[in-house]
Design brief:
322 residues; alpha/beta; Rossmann fold; 2 domains; 6-stranded parallel sheet; 37% helix; 17% strand; elongated; cell inner membrane
Length: 322
Protein backbone atom coordinates (compact mmCIF):
# COMPACT_ATOMS: atom_id res chain seq x y z
CA UNK A 1 0.00 0.00 0.00
CA UNK A 2 1.18 3.49 -0.87
CA UNK A 3 -1.32 5.80 0.84
CA UNK A 4 -3.65 5.19 3.79
CA UNK A 5 -6.22 7.39 5.51
CA UNK A 6 -6.89 6.71 9.18
CA UNK A 7 -10.19 8.03 10.54
CA UNK A 8 -10.36 8.59 14.29
CA UNK A 9 -12.11 11.86 15.03
CA UNK A 10 -12.54 11.98 18.82
CA UNK A 11 -11.98 11.94 21.78
CA UNK A 12 -8.65 13.31 23.04
CA UNK A 13 -7.40 10.12 24.72
CA UNK A 14 -8.63 7.91 21.89
CA UNK A 15 -6.92 10.02 19.22
CA UNK A 16 -3.71 10.04 21.28
CA UNK A 17 -3.50 6.27 21.67
CA UNK A 18 -4.60 5.58 18.12
CA UNK A 19 -1.46 7.36 16.88
CA UNK A 20 0.51 4.19 17.69
CA UNK A 21 -0.99 2.51 14.62
CA UNK A 22 0.93 5.00 12.48
CA UNK A 23 4.22 3.55 13.69
CA UNK A 24 2.91 0.02 13.13
CA UNK A 25 1.80 0.80 9.58
CA UNK A 26 5.09 2.47 8.64
CA UNK A 27 7.01 -0.61 9.78
CA UNK A 28 4.63 -2.95 7.96
CA UNK A 29 4.58 -0.93 4.71
CA UNK A 30 7.89 0.92 4.24
CA UNK A 31 7.43 4.14 2.31
CA UNK A 32 3.67 4.35 2.94
CA UNK A 33 2.08 7.80 3.27
CA UNK A 34 -0.47 8.11 6.07
CA UNK A 35 -3.08 10.86 6.41
CA UNK A 36 -5.39 11.32 9.40
CA UNK A 37 -8.99 12.59 9.57
CA UNK A 38 -9.93 14.13 12.92
CA UNK A 39 -12.34 16.59 14.49
CA UNK A 40 -10.73 20.03 14.22
CA UNK A 41 -10.84 20.30 18.04
CA UNK A 42 -8.18 17.56 18.26
CA UNK A 43 -6.16 18.30 15.13
CA UNK A 44 -3.01 19.14 17.11
CA UNK A 45 -2.61 15.48 18.12
CA UNK A 46 -1.87 13.95 14.69
CA UNK A 47 0.10 17.08 13.77
CA UNK A 48 2.56 16.14 16.54
CA UNK A 49 3.09 12.78 14.85
CA UNK A 50 5.90 13.00 12.25
CA UNK A 51 4.54 9.83 10.63
CA UNK A 52 1.33 11.62 9.58
CA UNK A 53 1.70 13.44 6.26
CA UNK A 54 -1.59 15.34 6.15
CA UNK A 55 -4.18 16.13 8.79
CA UNK A 56 -7.75 16.52 7.55
CA UNK A 57 -9.79 18.58 9.97
CA UNK A 58 -13.45 17.73 9.80
CA UNK A 59 -15.63 20.62 11.07
CA UNK A 60 -18.05 18.22 12.76
CA UNK A 61 -19.78 20.84 14.88
CA UNK A 62 -20.64 22.78 11.74
CA UNK A 63 -22.22 19.69 10.17
CA UNK A 64 -24.64 19.63 13.10
CA UNK A 65 -25.38 23.36 13.24
CA UNK A 66 -24.79 24.90 9.84
CA UNK A 67 -25.84 28.54 10.17
CA UNK A 68 -23.92 30.54 7.59
CA UNK A 69 -22.16 30.58 4.24
CA UNK A 70 -18.90 30.40 6.19
CA UNK A 71 -19.99 27.10 7.75
CA UNK A 72 -21.01 25.73 4.36
CA UNK A 73 -17.66 26.81 2.89
CA UNK A 74 -15.74 25.02 5.67
CA UNK A 75 -17.76 21.86 5.14
CA UNK A 76 -17.24 21.94 1.37
CA UNK A 77 -13.52 22.56 1.81
CA UNK A 78 -13.18 19.55 4.10
CA UNK A 79 -15.01 17.34 1.59
CA UNK A 80 -12.70 18.55 -1.19
CA UNK A 81 -9.67 17.70 0.99
CA UNK A 82 -11.02 14.19 1.56
CA UNK A 83 -11.34 13.62 -2.18
CA UNK A 84 -7.99 15.11 -3.10
CA UNK A 85 -6.13 11.80 -2.78
CA UNK A 86 -7.03 8.31 -3.95
CA UNK A 87 -6.32 6.11 -0.92
CA UNK A 88 -5.35 2.47 -1.20
CA UNK A 89 -7.23 1.94 2.06
CA UNK A 90 -9.32 3.95 4.53
CA UNK A 91 -9.26 2.64 8.11
CA UNK A 92 -12.17 3.83 10.23
CA UNK A 93 -11.14 3.21 13.84
CA UNK A 94 -14.17 5.02 15.22
CA UNK A 95 -17.29 3.34 13.84
CA UNK A 96 -20.00 5.98 14.17
CA UNK A 97 -22.00 7.98 11.62
CA UNK A 98 -19.61 10.93 11.51
CA UNK A 99 -16.55 8.76 10.86
CA UNK A 100 -18.48 6.60 8.39
CA UNK A 101 -19.50 9.66 6.38
CA UNK A 102 -15.87 10.80 6.24
CA UNK A 103 -14.80 7.33 5.08
CA UNK A 104 -17.55 7.15 2.47
CA UNK A 105 -16.73 10.55 0.98
CA UNK A 106 -13.21 9.50 0.07
CA UNK A 107 -12.51 8.02 -3.36
CA UNK A 108 -11.15 4.81 -1.91
CA UNK A 109 -12.53 1.47 -3.08
CA UNK A 110 -11.27 -0.23 0.11
CA UNK A 111 -12.88 1.17 3.25
CA UNK A 112 -12.34 -0.83 6.43
CA UNK A 113 -14.64 -0.60 9.46
CA UNK A 114 -15.72 -2.63 12.44
CA UNK A 115 -18.21 -5.48 12.10
CA UNK A 116 -21.80 -4.39 12.70
CA UNK A 117 -22.06 -5.68 16.27
CA UNK A 118 -18.95 -3.73 17.22
CA UNK A 119 -19.91 -0.39 15.72
CA UNK A 120 -20.70 2.52 17.99
CA UNK A 121 -23.68 3.23 15.71
CA UNK A 122 -24.89 0.31 13.63
CA UNK A 123 -26.02 2.52 10.76
CA UNK A 124 -22.39 3.38 10.10
CA UNK A 125 -22.03 0.01 8.34
CA UNK A 126 -23.12 1.52 5.00
CA UNK A 127 -19.67 3.07 4.50
CA UNK A 128 -17.47 -0.03 4.53
CA UNK A 129 -16.36 -2.50 1.89
CA UNK A 130 -14.28 -4.58 4.33
CA UNK A 131 -14.75 -5.41 8.02
CA UNK A 132 -12.63 -6.20 11.06
CA UNK A 133 -13.58 -7.24 14.58
CA UNK A 134 -11.83 -5.74 17.62
CA UNK A 135 -9.88 -7.98 19.96
CA UNK A 136 -11.54 -8.31 23.36
CA UNK A 137 -8.63 -10.06 25.08
CA UNK A 138 -6.54 -6.88 25.42
CA UNK A 139 -7.03 -3.29 26.47
CA UNK A 140 -8.60 -0.89 24.00
CA UNK A 141 -5.31 0.38 22.62
CA UNK A 142 -3.51 -2.94 22.20
CA UNK A 143 -6.67 -4.53 20.85
CA UNK A 144 -6.94 -1.88 18.15
CA UNK A 145 -3.32 -2.37 17.09
CA UNK A 146 -3.63 -6.15 17.05
CA UNK A 147 -6.84 -5.95 15.03
CA UNK A 148 -5.13 -3.98 12.27
CA UNK A 149 -2.09 -6.26 12.42
CA UNK A 150 -4.23 -9.33 11.91
CA UNK A 151 -6.23 -7.64 9.15
CA UNK A 152 -3.14 -6.71 7.12
CA UNK A 153 -0.85 -9.55 8.15
CA UNK A 154 1.82 -7.92 10.30
CA UNK A 155 2.95 -8.37 13.91
CA UNK A 156 2.99 -5.55 16.46
CA UNK A 157 5.51 -4.83 19.18
CA UNK A 158 4.33 -5.46 22.73
CA UNK A 159 4.91 -1.86 23.83
CA UNK A 160 3.35 0.77 21.54
CA UNK A 161 5.91 2.78 19.57
CA UNK A 162 6.58 6.36 20.62
CA UNK A 163 5.40 8.58 17.80
CA UNK A 164 5.04 12.12 19.12
CA UNK A 165 7.29 15.11 18.63
CA UNK A 166 5.92 17.96 20.73
CA UNK A 167 6.75 21.43 19.32
CA UNK A 168 9.29 23.33 21.38
CA UNK A 169 7.88 26.41 23.11
CA UNK A 170 8.71 29.79 21.64
CA UNK A 171 9.64 30.98 25.13
CA UNK A 172 10.75 28.92 28.10
CA UNK A 173 7.71 28.02 30.26
CA UNK A 174 7.75 29.24 33.85
CA UNK A 175 7.55 25.59 34.91
CA UNK A 176 11.12 25.00 33.78
CA UNK A 177 12.27 27.28 36.58
CA UNK A 178 10.79 24.83 39.07
CA UNK A 179 12.43 21.67 37.76
CA UNK A 180 11.90 18.95 38.66
CA UNK A 181 8.13 19.27 38.71
CA UNK A 182 5.12 16.99 38.79
CA UNK A 183 1.87 17.70 36.97
CA UNK A 184 -1.31 16.85 38.88
CA UNK A 185 -4.25 16.44 36.50
CA UNK A 186 -7.09 16.50 39.02
CA UNK A 187 -9.77 17.70 36.58
CA UNK A 188 -12.11 15.45 34.63
CA UNK A 189 -15.26 15.89 32.56
CA UNK A 190 -17.29 13.53 34.75
CA UNK A 191 -17.93 14.10 38.43
CA UNK A 192 -17.75 10.40 39.24
CA UNK A 193 -14.19 10.19 37.87
CA UNK A 194 -12.85 12.76 40.34
CA UNK A 195 -10.50 11.92 43.19
CA UNK A 196 -11.02 13.74 46.54
CA UNK A 197 -9.21 17.03 47.08
CA UNK A 198 -7.77 15.73 50.37
CA UNK A 199 -6.11 12.89 48.46
CA UNK A 200 -4.51 15.29 46.00
CA UNK A 201 -3.19 17.38 48.87
CA UNK A 202 -1.67 14.31 50.52
CA UNK A 203 0.03 13.27 47.28
CA UNK A 204 1.29 16.81 46.65
CA UNK A 205 2.80 16.92 50.17
CA UNK A 206 4.65 13.67 49.45
CA UNK A 207 5.97 15.05 46.16
CA UNK A 208 7.29 18.14 47.93
CA UNK A 209 9.13 15.87 50.34
CA UNK A 210 10.67 14.14 47.30
CA UNK A 211 11.97 17.49 46.04
CA UNK A 212 9.40 18.05 43.29
CA UNK A 213 7.21 21.09 42.71
CA UNK A 214 3.54 20.13 42.21
CA UNK A 215 2.04 22.07 39.29
CA UNK A 216 -1.72 21.97 38.86
CA UNK A 217 -3.38 22.61 35.46
CA UNK A 218 -7.04 23.48 34.93
CA UNK A 219 -9.49 24.24 32.13
CA UNK A 220 -12.74 25.69 33.50
CA UNK A 221 -13.42 28.14 36.33
CA UNK A 222 -14.64 25.28 38.52
CA UNK A 223 -11.43 23.35 37.85
CA UNK A 224 -9.38 26.44 38.69
CA UNK A 225 -11.12 26.73 42.06
CA UNK A 226 -10.39 23.07 42.76
CA UNK A 227 -6.76 23.57 41.74
CA UNK A 228 -6.49 26.54 44.09
CA UNK A 229 -7.94 24.46 46.93
CA UNK A 230 -5.25 21.81 46.39
CA UNK A 231 -2.45 24.37 46.17
CA UNK A 232 -3.67 26.17 49.29
CA UNK A 233 -3.06 23.00 51.30
CA UNK A 234 0.49 22.45 50.04
CA UNK A 235 3.18 25.10 50.51
CA UNK A 236 5.18 25.36 47.30
CA UNK A 237 2.49 23.92 45.02
CA UNK A 238 1.53 26.14 42.10
CA UNK A 239 -1.62 26.61 40.03
CA UNK A 240 -0.70 27.02 36.37
CA UNK A 241 -2.28 29.74 34.23
CA UNK A 242 -4.84 28.64 31.67
CA UNK A 243 -2.91 26.91 28.88
CA UNK A 244 -3.64 25.77 25.35
CA UNK A 245 -3.48 22.07 24.61
CA UNK A 246 -0.08 22.60 22.96
CA UNK A 247 1.24 24.43 26.02
CA UNK A 248 0.01 21.67 28.30
CA UNK A 249 1.69 19.10 26.07
CA UNK A 250 4.94 21.07 26.35
CA UNK A 251 4.68 20.99 30.15
CA UNK A 252 3.99 17.24 30.05
CA UNK A 253 7.07 16.78 27.87
CA UNK A 254 9.20 18.51 30.52
CA UNK A 255 7.64 16.95 33.62
CA UNK A 256 9.46 14.54 35.91
CA UNK A 257 6.14 12.90 36.84
CA UNK A 258 2.48 13.04 35.84
CA UNK A 259 -0.32 11.94 38.15
CA UNK A 260 -3.92 12.26 37.05
CA UNK A 261 -7.34 10.83 36.49
CA UNK A 262 -8.30 8.80 33.41
CA UNK A 263 -8.28 11.73 30.99
CA UNK A 264 -6.77 12.45 27.60
CA UNK A 265 -3.82 14.55 28.78
CA UNK A 266 -2.72 11.85 31.22
CA UNK A 267 -2.87 9.38 28.33
CA UNK A 268 -0.62 11.80 26.44
CA UNK A 269 1.92 11.47 29.26
CA UNK A 270 1.95 7.69 28.83
CA UNK A 271 2.37 8.09 25.06
CA UNK A 272 5.34 10.39 25.68
CA UNK A 273 6.80 7.76 28.04
CA UNK A 274 6.77 10.06 31.04
CA UNK A 275 6.64 8.46 34.51
CA UNK A 276 2.86 8.38 34.93
CA UNK A 277 0.27 7.25 37.46
CA UNK A 278 -3.30 7.09 36.16
CA UNK A 279 -6.17 7.05 38.64
CA UNK A 280 -9.38 5.16 37.85
CA UNK A 281 -12.63 5.67 39.75
CA UNK A 282 -15.50 5.28 37.27
CA UNK A 283 -14.01 3.65 34.17
CA UNK A 284 -12.51 0.24 33.56
CA UNK A 285 -8.80 0.11 34.37
CA UNK A 286 -8.25 -3.23 32.53
CA UNK A 287 -9.87 -1.82 29.41
CA UNK A 288 -8.52 1.75 29.37
CA UNK A 289 -5.49 1.68 31.65
CA UNK A 290 -1.87 1.73 30.55
CA UNK A 291 0.79 -0.33 32.28
CA UNK A 292 4.47 -0.19 31.37
CA UNK A 293 6.50 -1.65 34.27
CA UNK A 294 8.74 0.91 35.89
CA UNK A 295 7.27 3.75 33.84
CA UNK A 296 3.45 3.92 33.73
CA UNK A 297 1.01 2.51 36.29
CA UNK A 298 -2.79 2.49 36.40
CA UNK A 299 -4.52 2.13 39.78
CA UNK A 300 -8.10 1.82 41.03
CA UNK A 301 -11.01 0.64 38.90
CA UNK A 302 -14.63 1.32 38.05
CA UNK A 303 -16.36 1.83 41.41
CA UNK A 304 -13.13 1.39 43.40
CA UNK A 305 -11.08 4.57 43.63
CA UNK A 306 -7.52 3.97 44.85
CA UNK A 307 -6.30 5.07 48.26
CA UNK A 308 -3.57 7.64 48.84
CA UNK A 309 -1.29 4.77 49.89
CA UNK A 310 -1.87 2.99 46.56
CA UNK A 311 -1.08 6.19 44.70
CA UNK A 312 2.16 6.74 46.62
CA UNK A 313 3.23 3.14 46.02
CA UNK A 314 2.53 3.56 42.30
CA UNK A 315 4.50 6.81 42.21
CA UNK A 316 7.45 5.07 43.84
CA UNK A 317 7.20 2.23 41.28
CA UNK A 318 7.49 4.55 38.27
CA UNK A 319 10.30 6.61 39.80
CA UNK A 320 12.68 3.81 40.75
CA UNK A 321 16.09 4.13 39.07
CA UNK A 322 15.92 2.38 35.70
Amino acid sequence: MKRILVVKVTSLGDVIHAQAVVGDLHRAFPGVTIDWAVDDAFADIPRWNPGVARVLCAPLRRFKKMRSIKDLSAIWSSISDLRQERYDAVLDLHGVYKSAIISFLTRSKRRFGYSSVNLGERGAAFAYTHRFAPRNDANAWEGMRRTLGETFGYAIEAVPPTVFSIPKPATVPDAVKDMPFALLFHATSKEEKKWPTANWIAVAHSLRERGMTPLIPWGSDAERREAEAIAAGVPGARVLPKLTIEQIAQHVDLAALVVGTDTGLVHLATALRKPTVMIFSATSRPHFGVSIPGLCASIGDDGRPPSVEEALEAIASVQRPK
